Model the fold of this input.
Amino acid sequence: MSTLNPTAVKRWIALEMKRLREAAGYDRATAAERIGKATTVIAHIETARNLPAPADLEILLTFYGVPDRSTFFRDMTRRAKRGQDWWIKFNRAVPEWFTLYLGLETGAARINTVDLVALPGLFQTRDYARAIVREGRKWSTEAELEAILDLRMARQEILDRPEDAPQIWSIIDEGVLRRQIGGPAVMREQLQHLIDLSERPKIDIQVLPFTAGAHGASDGMFIILTYPPEFRGDPGTVYVENRREGLYYESAAALLDFRNTFERLQVQADNPERSRELLRNLAEDLDVH
Done:
């Protein structure tokens, strides 16, 4: 639980309070009446705008038929209030729509990624990331660009957590690996970094080869985040990003759809061993040239 951050915990409290209310068969107005407050109070709790007051929490959990969970919820509420999210120091470099993702990524137990255009941020070297980010948009100053890179490198610290680093399974389109982002030297370093990462026990990398033909992710990248057992009842999150915003899907139907797609891609992609061999061959070709 040490890696759980305020943003992720607050989101879980919101989702679970909503789930428990609906499971008990009450609407927001009825729950609000039980604690003697406006319906907006329940709405703000269930959308993670506000945390529940301790007294309201006790009443609501009893009303929902789960008084035994009061102690755990009180602990989670304290966690959500305590400390700061790690990316606060990078605030100027973080788009508002991306802050939730940073919290969820940090707290995830498992991360499944599908990438068709560029490598996942967690795997990028700084020089590769610089080449990608520089072309993404115009930058007012070099310092602004470097701040974005600092944030991206800081995200990768979760890979080195000694006890609870997330399990990561990444499917990468072959075209991503053949495109020489930043030039041959940068790409060679990046490919070697991928090889090193693929040899870690908690990281699996599969390449989706050109010969796979049509596939279920042709409409774009996606990330599936699965959370630790402490986040009881949490179905997980699917994150999809374009150049202007990030989208979050958390319904059971959406999660099932994306998980089924990911499983089909795992079958279509080369296995991790064969994928690692391709990475080595591509790196060697860049050495030759």
